[in-house]
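yo

u said u wanted the structure for the complex thing, so here. seqs first:
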Amino acid sequence: MAYIGSAVSGILDTKLVAGKGQYTADVSLPDMGYMAVVRSPYAHARIINIDTGAAQRHPGVRIVVTGADIQQWSKPIPHTLNPSAFGGKTTDIYCLAIDRVHYVGTPVAAVVADTRHAATEAANLIEVEYADLPVVIDAEQALEPDSPLLYPEWETNELMHVRFQGGDVEQAFADADHVLDDTLRLHRHTATPLEPRAALAHYDDRAERLTLWVSTQAPHPLRTTLANTLQMDENDIQVIQPQVGGAFGVKIPTYQEDPLACLLSKRTGKPVKWIEERTEHLMAGGHAREQTLKFSVACQADGSVTGLKVRIIGDVGALAALAGWGMSYVASFVVPGPYKIPNCEVDLSIVVTNKGPWNAYRGFGKEAASFLMDRVMDRVADTVRMDRAAVRLKNFVPKDEFPYVQISGATLDSGDYVKALQDVMDKAGYQTFAEEQQRLRDQGRHIGMGVGFELTPEGGCIPDSFIGGYEGATVRVSPSGQVTVLTGVTSPGSGNETGIAQIVADTLGVPLGTVRVIQGDTQACPYGLGNWSSRSLFMGGSASLYAAREVQHKVLRVAASMLETAPEDLDCEQGRIRVKGQADREVAFNDIAEYVHKRAFDHHAFDMEPGLESTRYFRMGNIHHVPDDKGRINTYPSYPYAACVAVVEVDVETGVITLLRYVTVHDCGTVINPLLVEGQFQGAVAQGLGGLIYEQLSYDDNGQLQTGTFMDYTLPTAVEVPSVEIHHQEVPSPFTPLGTKGAGESGVSSPFGTIVSAVENALAPFGVRIHDTPLTPQRVWRMIQAAKNGTNGGADA
Amino acid sequence: MIRVPFQFHRPHSIDEVVRLLSQCVQNGEDVKLLAGGQSLMPSMNLGLVAPAHIVSLNHVAGLDSIRQDGDMLAIGAGTTHHALAKSEVVQAHCPILSETAACIGDVQVRNRGTLGGSIGHFDPAADYPPVLVLLDAACQIVSPSGERTVAAKDVFVDYMTTSLSADEVLTEIRVPALPSDTGTAYVKFTRVEGGFAIVGAGACLRLNPDNTCRSIRVGICGAAPVPVRLTAIEDTLTGKAVDDAFVEVVAAAAYESAHDPVAELHADADYKREMVRVFTRRAVKTAWERAD
Amino acid sequence: MQTTIQLIVNNTPCEATVDTRTLLVDFLRDQLDLTGTHLGCATGNCGACTVMLDGLTVKACTILAADVAGSTVTTIEGWTQAARQSGDLHPIQDAFVKHHALQCGFCTPGMVLSVQQLLQEKSQPTEADIRHGIAGNLCRCTGYASIVKAVQEVAQTSSE
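structre next:
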């Protein structure tokens, strides 16, 4: 095991650091045209007429299209997750709006021209006549009987209603020492990878073949949806994922612009390039998080939580084919997270409004569940006057009860939650913090410490979708001993290619530098579902492990024959295969590779299947889609978690929060590469912190987005984000061959609960209680003022 | 990406600049001067501004000089924030200006953005205007009819509006060389590092040997669409003992002066007024600590 | 409307005709095929388009190609070529690789140039100096910790 577990640098890093990464926007083809998309300036309207005359006549224009053309030429885009498969409503999503727009930014027309300038000029010449429709931007209002309807045929704005229930909730509440209620409101924000979306479509008329270079996370599923939408054979489509400049979920699904660019390439007979502008991304690239979480909790005086009722209202914006609504479903699926609360019910309404559609974002609903459960525990602790950490320790699922099935069917794989929290408290100096806090308070400074705990189910596997719990990989050894790994998973910059190379290099016993990982090309790679839900290493890595083992089995068989020994008596390291304990009896891995390829009929290889190549698929053994006796299914196979402590300082004059420390004990099972895992975790915390304090997609009453650029959608800089202190606790997953669990999303879910807890702790002298996000300075300042003045229910703001 | 075509002019002298400007004005064509472009270019990329002509100042020699002229510093309008922040002359004689320059935007913005560009664009969140107003800076302006000098306070007339007409160009800013015992500070409040100022406050304070106030000047951005100077109380504070109560008097006056803050998404008018109080207090305190 | 410019890009004199609207970043990418400079926001916020203009870092989305006539522009490609010492990379880049101070790599070329500028002005920066020095470059992947570590190592090595 030379590489597994060690901090190997990213195998793509030397290229990327020199600016040699090739992203989709960097790919060019001769005679390509540029696509510009006309978007609705209204949140809700009927399209009366579209006049494309002037645009058609504009110099350099190759084609102008509207929804009417699209409807004639293509089918609706298959939903990444179809709500109707969950008993919900649905609607057809074409590449362009057909007769109605549901949010500011809805694509309504498109132009392709010789240059980007000509395309945007022509787009500006398209005149769209709209008839205003009443706008609803608040989810609770959208549920009122007299609310305007986004999709009148539904007769409601409720996309879906879901209930999970277990135990005897009413009895638990009747027997409780305390019952307490609260309502939490999470605000809308999103992933914002630095690379905007981009696509280059080339329909080759002679070959009758389509190639799409696209900034995506899931090339194979994208190919299938393109085939459906464009009514083409999958065989005639190749999707290529160049380097991706960050994704965080938003590049999982098929966007309207993807088939649109393909269609326009087919119609014009020339390549079509589209590069999204940042303003388009913030309007229409997909949103996340905005939810109301109401809870009622029953607890005993000793801090044990005996019952929990949760009502979640997810404001998912307009419906798109992007799968974002699924995040609200997952939020309800995860409750009550890492806690053993046998009597529990969750009631979920997923609601559409005239705002940008939701799209997947790192966390995928688990962050909402984590925040909810952190708030529940803090409120219980405050009510029974116990330490906030102590209440968590009391209610965790004990380490000897895994696998543990939650009310939703979520089957927690393994862990030691108590130890993780105790360890992080030790590392952070939890027990002695109060002295330091008091000392600074005496100087007029307000620092606070908070605890939080995130459970981040990974590897989601949803019935009847491409969100699946298996992966494939091919390992191929060339005659010169070079190793190619082709995977169905992809990397949007998250580093799994390095982890996979480590696994394969160790399994084959070859130098890491001889392993090349190829991802994201539907023509070359085995069928796979792509990158999301932190699945790439524990699923794709496991498939690669299996394939490498199969190849190594053949290598050792040949080597054993040459060295006149048994395969199990051989060691292979750094490309040298040796008889154990006999340094002078060895053969080079490369020589075996050459032998197998060139001398398949010679005596060391004649009784073996030729070739040094294997394609293997790996499936998670703990997913089940057949309901159990309580009607539950398990859609997540891996449950990494993190216990966290945050230290903040609050400037009570301004409401500014500074995150001073963030300490974590994180369990993602076996760590293949600490450098990669820590990088992911640190980045995830930065996104969580950004979401909590700095980032907000804000709409006015007319449904106009007020934060459409990075000037007002403010992302945290290096000044705002501290270096996270990361410690590992490796409780291996019993369901993966190396004990790996998902790593990648982890870290994004805990900052809300942990930092909010710390801010409340800092502001304890004022008695501030936090229910709503974001924690902008103005809002925090208001909370302090309200608490000082004893308004707003005494201490609450 | 910029959508609307425009004509680009690259003049090499101020005379040529003024001639181009007046030509455009006479033809009734919208013209914009381009200095560092750190505000103009994003606005054009977003399609918020679409002039028919751009006249660049970046090829006019000599616009970026900094020199001491008696008890004044004369700073070319084309001086970048970076150059201003690094200038030893400015650091020595008008440290509040270098401190202000050093906190604008980020490194790249400071490398390109200019003093004159900031004045000409006049965003109400800009950092220089309140400092220039408190320094009683004078702006040298060239127009087709000749040169004129305008006090900074008369340059900033309304929300995003200066008193420069479309055929005029700002060439030089003159600020006093401050006595070395002056304590100065500029502090600002932003959402994130490099962001626009929600509120910014500058203060210059001189003390008498007995620790009373010899002179104080305060300028604020974010309190109103134009920079606010606390003229009304500055003189009344002369001779007063400088202590915490003194600081509070200034902060309270700043709060009172913030009658018309420009509300923003994350900072409404009431909150901004409070922040004007807080940041004025901080500026005056720091200036006091730095005064000899 | 077109205009012709002469300038030096990556140590090579060049003359080009550009649409007056063309941003420096688009000029470099589309006309000179220097795709190491990236475009992330077009409002001067993200810093992915950072290049050196006459020796100082600037955001190439806030500059017109027409306006850099007579200037010297250095992109990540040219800088790497000129600045590398032993091997293919500059010590800043080596430290980025060692500490995995990048993930998707989209912000990285701009980030590296900002670090170069920072260390040019202050060879022994504090952590706060580093964080302020790179505040004009957003990174959405790393959370900056590994970048800060890499810069600290470069500074320390250069002082030895």
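Chain A has three domains: 13-133+194-246+251-284, 291-461+630-795, 470-619. Chain A touches chain C through 58 residues (CB under 8 Å).
cya
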